[in-house]
Structure prediction request, 230 residues.
Amino acid sequence: MGVIPPLPSGETNEALIEMAIAASACTACGLAERRRNVAFGEGNSRSPLVLVGEGPGDTEDALGRPFVGKAGQLLERALGEAGLSRNDVYIANTVKCRACDWVNGRPINRPPTDIETMACRRWLEPQLAAIDPRVILCIGAPSARNLIKRDFKITVERGKFFSSNLAKTVLATLHPAYILRNQHGGSDGGYSLLVADIVKAWEAAIRLRDGRTRQESTVPTESQPSLFEV
Prediction:
């Protein structure tokens, strides 16, 4: 598995630049107390597709970049097999700081609490609005439960399109960390599904991007509650 490429250069979205600077000093929740860096997001801010995970882990906290640990390397590989790279999409998380508990002086990763997730919406919502993607691909069930619906079932509903107020449509796929945990005995752990969902999301994003000019939409969506409804 290869290494993550250098941070894309040449960001020209001034709104995102200003947001990232402001987010680096955020103290809206307790995650700010022990973080090393804010992993705000990176990639092509003009992309029609945004990938949104749950939150940064240890490597992401150290580097201030999303999806750069082992799971990120698998995501990088899946993007490549889908004919894409990190420079073709924008990658972010629902929370920008690492969620962890400290036990005997060591950080132990944990899911973000509802309070932490809600606090970070002050960054996620305007971040997505500044990018204005055609499609959002949720990476993993926690992101899908945040962005699609609270009772989202990843094994049943992954790959399905849902309506959204932050993009034309949103869908979810398996998290690379889940895939890594399940790759044994000759099983790919769901890796092929991840690649297929990325291809599906990208093709829909391109159709919707081009359809904006032609006033067309060819992506069916399922109804859902209001985005971020709790």
